[in-house]
Amino acid sequence: MAIKIIKQQNRKYGFSLVEISVVLLIFGLMIGGIMSAFTQETRIAKQAELKMKMDAIEKAIAAYVKKNNYLPCPADGTYTISAANFGLTGGTAGGGTCSNGATYDGNGNRTANTTPPTVNFYLGNIAGGVVPIRALGLPDEYGIDPWGGKFSYAVDKRFTATSSFITYNLISTTGGITVSDDGGNAIVSNAIAVVFSHGQNGHGAFQLSGSIKNSGSTNAHELVNCHCTSAAAAGVYSASFFTSLTTSTSSSDLRTVFDDNLRYYTRGSFLTNNDKARELK
């Protein structure tokens, strides 16, 4: 009789494997939901940070143009924050070349930098590198996107020459940069500058170390933006870039889906004091 009582108690107070499995399943779902919410919150926070920094860069470039009547040249992305030349414009300010004696191969990639700082890429009228954050008077951290990549920056060098914003007035259509949409359709073909983040995957972006990140992206439009290969090796620099209304937000598609964030500018994007004077006439 005592044995029967013990068995009954075991059945009353014990847990079967099925019951334990159900509890673990529920617990797993709860943890998954919490992690998903946390991940989404993190993504939202990073997107807000990205917008804040890009807004600040845009305003700083506009202020620079208003003061100087020309665009700043890109900075050299290979410098670390501790370097004296970090965030400084390539070439001589207002010189209209951005290269300052550096040499570049036929693909627009720098091969020698005898008088730094100079831009990293130079082909035709287009010069490229990273945002010259110190020249714009912004804190160093504003040159770094939320994923640790430096903001890339390319300009039509004609607009980096002294008084170029007077030479090319407000209604000028001069500009040699083309920005296209997802379908390959040109949104603008006369942009004078672009600023962009290489997104969460960071493929092709200069890092804090000065090296270029290789995340193995195979997205054709991202490879155009970085002008590099899927192994992040230097490609052919050009005046072509891509932007998109929708970007990747999940970690499972980072190598295949476009996640760059790009802004482009034409001559009419920046209003100078001379432009205002013309408007008042």
Give an account of the 3D structure.
It is a single chain. The protein is α+β, with helices and mostly antiparallel strands. The protein has one domain (54-280). It contains five helices and ten strands. The chain has a five-stranded antiparallel beta sheet with strand order 3-4-5-8-10, covered by helices on one side. It has a three-stranded mixed beta sheet with strand order 7-6-9. β1 (103-104) and β2 (110-112) form a beta hairpin. It starts with a helix and ends with a helix. The mean pLDDT is 88.
Summarize the structure.
The protein has about 280 residues and is of the alpha+beta class.
Shape: elongated
Instruction: Report the mean per-residue pLDDT as an integer.
Output: 88
The number of helical elements comes to 5
Strand content of the residues, in percent? 5-15%
- Span from first to last CA? 110 Å
Count of domains: 1
User: By helix and strand content, what is the structural category?
Assistant: alpha+beta
Helix content: 25-40%
Radius of gyration: 26 Å
Reading the helices and strands in chain order gives HHEEEEEHEEEHEEH
- Topology, number of strands: 10
Strands ordered across the widest β-sheet = 3-4-5-8-10
What does the largest sheet look like?
5 strands, antiparallel
> Residue ranges: pLDDT <50 for 5 or more in a row?
none
